[in-house]
DNA sequence: ATAAATTGGTTGACCCGTCAACTATAATGT
DNA sequence: ACATTATAGTTGACGGGTCAACCAATTTAT
């Protein structure tokens, strides 16, 4: 306790680091993936990642209702609502009333929106392939399995 | 195009889903890990995850300066600053001027802060072990490798 | 038929994390 | 020695994401 006179409760814990390291790694990788996609989309299409997802869900997956988007892509419905409004204002999306359900609105792409998706799809696919190419099939399988297990463990409520 | 008359730009793309699925999975797992830790800390110690990290870095790792915390745990320095202020206000941390560097302050735990860390450490270790037990060594290794590769791929700037 | 519960969508509030600007002090270069 | 550059820490602002309240319309149960 002479030179290094720091009040410690316990010796540094590699275990503690591991846990924090894990969530740290996960959030970091995810942040970088998002940042990369966001950059491309901003430069190439002038939209955000969320907006791209919405456009792709409408234009590629053929979904037509906000609620479907939320469910399909686990997007918050509030966020979908706000972004739809933006996309409509920018003339990329049309939202017209649905006859069969007065609450709902039917979503679709405008010509401009369709053009933008068509123009953007190839580059996003390219990126896709880059990412996919980074992992071999075995790694991908283990990654998914590990994430499943972690997610399950993270749901435990009764370990205390 | 009869019954399912939806204007699509392309057929639904499993590849697109994969990418979004990947970031979706990552963010989801991470969110759950955070939520779990946050819940435990809130119920058990009345602090947030960030605050716990700070307390542990001071009390367990023995760090004494804000800047060291930021570097060590990749926490934003602004966030550290604000949280330190809260922790001081709650009487868990002391921050006194540093003689050798007028800009810096020396951080330490109060008795109350030390007690709280001592009380909270065991349960966080328990959680730690739960998570660690969820993956075998091989899975953990592949997980790390896969995250490394993905992170690298996510840093590529010139794929377009 | 009508009350209750569910669903679609909008809006406001809030937290977390990041970034930028700024002040004060220290270290470095010439 | 003095000007430049780097560092410690504070603060304000912003975007992404979650949550809750709310309205209108629709489905379900009794």
Write the layout of secondary structure elements.
The structure is a homodimer of 160-residue chains.
Chain A: H1 14-45, H2 49-59, H3 66-73, H4 77-89, E1 93-97, E2 105-109, H5 111-134, H6 137-155
Antiparallel strand pairs in A: 1-2
Helix pairs in contact in A: 1-5, 3-4
The structure holds a DNA duplex (30 and 30 nucleotides).
Keywords (chains A, B): DNA-binding
GO molecular function, one term (chains A, B): DNA-binding transcription factor activity
Domain HTH marR-type (chains A, B): 19-152
Describe this structure in words.
Two copies of one chain form a homodimer. Chain A is mostly helical. Chain A has one domain (22-156): Orthogonal Bundle (Arc Repressor Mutant, subunit A). Chain A has helices spanning 14-45, 49-59, 66-73, 77-89, 111-134, 137-155, and strands spanning 93-97, 105-109. A two-stranded antiparallel ribbon of chain A has the order 1-2. In chain A, strand 1 and strand 2 form a beta hairpin. In chain A, helix 1 (14-45) runs antiparallel to helix 5 and helix 3 crosses helix 4 (77-89). Chain A is globular, with a radius of gyration of 22 Å. Mean pLDDT of chain A is 86; it is low at 1-5. At the A-B interface, helix 1, helix 2, helix 5 and helix 6 of A face helix 1, helix 2, helix 5 and helix 6 of B. Chain A binds a DNA duplex (30 and 30 nucleotides) through residues 27, 31, 34, 48-50, 65-67, 70, 75-82, 84-85, 101-105.
